Amino acid sequence: MKKLTIILFFLLISFSQNTFASNCDINLEADGMMQYSVKNIEIDSSCSSVVINLKNTGTLDVSLAGHNIVISKKSDFNYLTSIVNPSYGIETGYLPEDSKVIYKTKFLGPNETLALNVDPKKFTKGEEYTFWCSFLGHWGVMNGNFSVK
């Protein structure tokens, strides 16, 4: 019985560490229905870096319905969506350089992936952030809460 307890203890510790480590590596899919696979991303401030692995699982060409990820303060969302313009190009996510954009990626086409390295130190605990897709009109439904614990 004592051996079983010790084994269970070490399994529990191992499981806890794996769960904790997963907060430093996040998988996010964007689909053809203009939806992200999650509505909330919570990163751990103890991670030195967080990797968000984004995959476009949709089937439409990038020029018709590409997907990306933009991270900003929730209070800057309306301003940033008002300056989205295709003239800035697919590689810039239709957004100009702006200090209110914390992170942004290029648009991905079908089955394309990218890894976005995020520094938790760029965020303040308790501040409200959002992640969203800056393809024209997508942000209305393709958005979610982003936070740091």
Describe this structure in words.
There is one protein chain. With 149 residues, the chain is α/β, with parallel strands linked by helices. The protein has a single domain (24-148), classed as Cupredoxins -  blue copper proteins (Immunoglobulin-like, Sandwich). 20% of the residues lie in helices and 28% in strands. It has 3 helices and 8 strands. It has helices spanning 2-21, 62-65, 77-82, and strands at residues 25-30, 40-43, 50-56, 70-73, 101-104, 113-118, 129-132, 143-148. The strands form 2 sheets. The chain has a 5-stranded mixed β-sheet with strand order 2-8-7-4-5, with no helix packed on it. It is globular.
- SS content category: alpha/beta
CATH superfamily: Cupredoxins -  blue copper proteins
Total number of helices: 3
| Overall shape | globular
According to DSSP, the number of beta strands is 8
Q: What pattern of helices and strands is seen along the backbone?
A: HEEEHEHEEEE
Helical content band? 10-25%
Spatial strand order of the main sheet = 2-8-7-4-5
Report the average pLDDT across residues: 87
Indicate the CATH class. Answer: Mainly Beta
Q: What is Rg?
A: 18 Å
Secondary-structure arrangement, i.e. CATH architecture: Sandwich
What is the strand content?
A: 25-35%
Total number of distinct structural domains:
1
Distance between the termini: 38 Å
Low-confidence stretches: 4-21
Largest sheet: 5 strands, mixed
CATH topology: Immunoglobulin-like
